[in-house]
Amino acid sequence: MTESSKNAISLAQIDQYHENYLARKDAKVIQRSVSHQGILATSADFASDVDMSPVFSIDLNTGKVANQKQSGRCWMFAALNTMRHHLADLFNLSNFELSQNYTNFWDKFEKANYFYENVLATADQPRTSRKVAFLMETPQQDGGQWDMLCAIIEKYGIAPKSVMPETYNSSKSSELNSVLNTKLRKDAITLRKLVSNNATDAEIAKTRQEMLADDYKILSYSLGEPVQKFAFEYRDDDKQFHADRGLTPKSFYDKYIGWNLDDYVSIINSPTDDKPYNKTYTVEMLGNVVGGRQVKHLNVTMDNFKDLAIKQLKDGQSVWFGCDVGKSSERQKGIMDVNYYKKDELLDVDLSMSKAERLDYGESLMTHAMVITGVDLVEGKPTKWKVENSWGEKVGTKGYFVMSDAWMEEYCYQVVVNKKYLSEDLLKAQSENPALLAPWDPMGALASN
Question: Which domains does the chain have, with CATH numbers?
Answer without folding.
Answer: 52-444 (3.90.70.10)
